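Technical annex, item 7. During the second reporting period the consortium partners agreed on a shared format for inverse folding records so that results from different sites could be compared directly. Each record opens with the tokenized structure and is followed by the designed sequence. A conforming record, contributed by the partner at site C, is shown below for reference.
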């Protein structure tokens, strides 16, 4: 018969609990089980108290996680399958930056958390005319660790519908 590790421990009760006595109408093995159960329960209680004390200080733990600054691009099917590449031209404060879209995201350094004009250009694989539309989007500050840890940088999102219509996400 195979015994689980815990059963093996309790099966060796004579070694583990030499002080177990026949009190309260139970045999040595029952007493040993009760003692071990109380020890485990006490250990769990001490651990819970330590976690409560260490976590209850009111301070917020912030990681060093970064936030990509830029504009995401979501293209609906079946149009997505027909797109060979995409670029965005982002303009603000009389300057424009043309950025390639990689993996659905255009990294825009120095993107402000204010309205910007974006021209989305989709190059199609089927030699059909490229889709090019301009819209205004307002990037918002992203908080990867929550608002208590400070902003990571501005982000915006653009969605291209299957019919080629471009909207802010």
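Designed sequence (site C submission):
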């Amino acid at each position: 018969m195979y015994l689980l590790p815990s059963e093996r421990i309790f099966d060796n009760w004579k070694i583990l609990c030499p002080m177990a006595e026949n009190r309260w109408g139970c045999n040595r093995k029952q007493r040993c089980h009760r003692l071990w159960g109380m020890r485990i329960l006490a250990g769990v209680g001490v651990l819970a108290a330590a976690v409560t004390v260490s976590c209850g200080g009111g301070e917020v733990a912030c990681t060093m996680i970064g936030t990509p600054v830029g504009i995401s691009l979501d293209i609906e099917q079946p149009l997505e399958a027909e797109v060979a590449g995409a670029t965005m031209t982002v303009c603000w404060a009389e300057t424009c930056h043309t950025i390639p879209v990689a993996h659905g995201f255009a990294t825009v350094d120095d993107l402000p958390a204010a309205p910007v004009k974006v021209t989305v250009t989709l190059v199609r694989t089927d030699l059909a005319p490229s889709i090019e539309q301009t819209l205004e989007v307002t990037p918002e500050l992203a908080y990867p660790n929550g608002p208590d840890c400070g902003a990571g940088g501005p982000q915006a999102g653009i969605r291209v519908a299957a019919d080629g219509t471009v909207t802010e996400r």
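The beta strands are 70-75, 83-92, 95-100, 105-107, 116-124, 131-137, 140-142, 153-160, 166-168. The chain has a mean pLDDT of 78. All partners now use this format for quarterly exchanges.
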